Fold each of these.
Amino acid sequence: MSVGILERLAKGPVVGDGSMVFTLEKRGYALAGPWTTEAVVEYPEAVLQLHREFVRAGADVLQTATFFSSDSKLTTGKRDYTSKEINDAACMLARKAADENACLVCGSISPAVPLDSGRKNQHLLAAEFTKQCNVYREHRMDLVTCEFFNNIEEVEICAVEMKKLNIPVSLSMRLGPGGDEKGVSVEECAVRMAKTGADMIGTQCGYDINTALNVMSRFKSALQEADLRPFLSCQPQGMLCPEVEQSPAGYIALQEFPFAVEPRIITRIEAHQFARKAYELGVNYIGGCCGFESHHIRSIAQELQSERGIVPPVADKAVPFGGDALKLSTVNEFHNGNRSTREYWYNINKGSGRPYQSALTEAAMQTGYPGRMYLQ
Ligand SMILES: [Zn+2]
């Protein structure tokens, strides 16, 4: 019997997993646009392999590949699937990979029917969440979470359904400094999420590591002021995009989304720095979303290895910053550098290899983005 999420969170930082459907799309197993996960039925081996990569990297928890897996969103693929079919298959695949290293499985719910003004269709939205929750009950999920929501009212409706499961509940929102899509502030979103009685609250997707840490520090202050103490989670997306942090759409507002965002993907060194900053801020659950690949999750697990007292399975082939293995490499002959130290990797100026490409998009340059830098 593996240790439950609340016990793990109480003991020290927990490592989440990374990108599922965004990575499956790059690998040829999901369609950009709908971003649904028919792959759990059509290409189960591909989904299982991706889960296994996160387990090997050191993730403690695997989220089900159930993005947009409500009946209202599942209308593409080789044929139409029901929410139950996709959620059933996703639960089984995540559990299979999780059991290989005593990891936990988290059932994930994402936005379904947009909530209209006056909450007239609230029951439709709740019904979609209930269907997914029923599958998570059958499959005995270790916890449930919500992802990609940027409307606090929808999160509150989802929380009501999730709490009926009587398992730990995590709520996360796609929140930039400007608050939710209706302009509800970061602070109010944090307090309202905590007041649902959720065990853990945080941010996920939409915004980059720097923006996410900034928002999480505002969560912390708001919660302290309200005397609320849920665990905190942070799972940002893995592309640097400071110029869209004020947009409610976040990284989707980038003109390069989704097929030309690769130059913005964080390095594994930045994933180390992110993990350290998140830990120092008091974030209890540290993972990633779109763009966070297994090597980024490995960096989080390795950065916090001594604090957690857990060596990730990948350690037989990967030592933080290369260690003694990299000392043997011919790369050390160049620039007289010892490339197997943290200092080397933190201090070099990391070029993009694109001399004629601007650091930020033209539109952002014109709006006068102040050029803030965080992880320096
Ligand atoms: Zn994402």
Note: The pocket of zinc ion is lined by residues 22, 205, 237, 289-290 (CB under 6 Å).
Amino acid sequence: MYQLTARDIRRRNRFAVLQAVYAAGGPTSRQEITQATGLSFATVGNMIAELLDVGVLAEQGRDAAGVGRPRARLAINPARGVLIGVDIAETAIHFDLFDLAMTVLRSVETAIDPAATEPDAVADLIARGIAELTPVDADRVLGVGLSVPGLVEPEGGVSVFSPYWHWHNVPLKALLEQRVPHPLYLDNPLKASTAAQLWFGAGRDVDDLIVVTLRAGVGIGIVIDGALYRGVTNSAGEWGHTNLVLDGRACRCGRRGCVEAYVSTRGIAATLREVAPDSPLLDGDDAHVLAAVATAAERGDATALEVVERTGRYLGVAVANLVNLFNPRTMVFGDVVANLLGAPLLEITRRVAADHAMSDTFHAVTLQLCTLPHNPASLGAATFALDGFLTDRETFGSIAAWRATRTTT
Ligand SMILES: [Zn+2]
């Protein structure tokens, strides 16, 4: 059995305290944080002292009302520094600059030239976008989180496999370290979107959650007992490449019949080609086709509605499998497919999943659309950078020494 070290426990507690401050949505108190986290008052006090010391939290006056000692109000200190979140999708890179309250200060988007996807060219594009968002005082950047498509090995920062670009074992973090002067944290969009839900979305309220990402790539993030489940090689959640149709459509992973071949942007374009090979909606790349289907479905176009119906049927069966496997409390559907096809797709998915899942298990789950105000992949990537900053030995390792100098002078 995996044993939590004292350091893991401190990290988990620090996360819980900070999450409670974010969830409060405004200044809060030690008492409220103790209540929200279920931790002891002493532990909460210690974690708050550390977070005040590194400047992530700040005291904002005191409540004078009531009896007893006045209570200090605590809030995130947005002035402490900034974080950069980068969502590297297959055809474009989205960059967001966040303050520590996770408010987007500025965004940039860069298209990826499909003819220039070799690692050095992509690393150059990423570095340029980060430089564009970096404030004049570059030391204010506490870290950069990057969501990288495909399989990613976060410790070494290696893009293990990215089918769209035919990348194998690309040391992306090392390539970026030659170009970017900030601490870097890499993972894939499934993990990043799930982290965003844990910090700011449905994951604040439930411990057993599945976050479904539906874009050019498809997959899930799995939260068990409040923690992101990664698997042995960080590949847990590659649900997009589980089989849905025996001997079905070719998938870009090289196999056939995968979930992704039916419910990704590409899969939906393929469904439209099956339903109506000459449809005028079949114009441009897969993303354009999806947008056209969404608009046409809204105005009641029969072909588009048929495509949404078929997509919901595929998705419903694949979701029923997840419900039976994980027995989650909540499933959140996010990214471009869910954003564009929205409630009608979710309705069909729910109906079909109800027919295929175990009924008691299905009754326990709520299926919902992602309601985060930002791009969940870049927001989640930025939380990896925040977590990295807070976990960095140097951030907290120097506190004891710093405290000693403060008390002796
Ligand atoms: Zn596949």
Note: The pocket of zinc ion is lined by residues 241, 251, 253, 255, 258, 260 (CB under 6 Å).
